[in-house]
What does this fold into?
Amino acid sequence: MHPVFLRLGPLTIRYYGLMYVISFVLGYFIVRAEARRRRLLAKSEDVLDLLLVTIPLAVLLARLYYVAFQWEWYRAAPWKVVALWEGGLAIHGGLLGGVLGLLIVSRWKRVPFWRLADAVVPALVLGQVLGRVGNFLNGDAFGTPTTLPWGVVFPPGSPAGDLYPGQPLHPAMLYEALGNLLIFALIWRLRRRPAQDGFLAAVYFVAYALVRFACEFFRGDALMLGPWRAAQVASVLFILGFGGWLLAGRLWRASRA
It folds into this structure.
């Protein structure tokens, strides 16, 4: 693997950024189709407004979240805060930014927040799949050393290769990419079933929390919250909150049957 896709004179296009661009383009068409099917955003301009609000907020908070947990390192090199091409976007910060963007757009366009979230979820999780592929090519979000035959030796100059030179590592980013692809298949299958607003979003948060909790055991660059892995703490909160909401809704419907 190699982090650089193309060099055009002084311009360097990296796979990491390319994967995000592809995910944004695919996301536009998926969200447009789902929003129209749900009769939320009738105009293509409305979908573009949605992406223009949510994507910058998601990227900004994803970066700030990551930098906050790695501040001891960034304090010694503050100019690195803007070096997004080197990796360092935390999905949980991105989710916070995305939720904030959805809240803004739902009020702006006067559409139900949770129904809009359900329309966005398939694009979100597919974007995560592509993002993890970008992580693999960039050599970040890597795993711990392993003797398993599919261990990957990352090249010098990549975050993984610099921290673990010459050592085979778990391709933790590909584990998560596979898990997210399965979540996408589940969400895509469920999306046409009649359900309460927010159902798909809740399924996504629970399913992703389970995948991320498991993958964190193999991560070699986990963000820490004291003695705990921050992503696992967030995963437990997601499972309790959204899993409890799904269970309560099921019990309520059963009591009314």
Remarks:
- The chain has one domain: 4-256.
- The chain is about 65% helix and 5% strand.
- The longest strand covers residues 4-8.
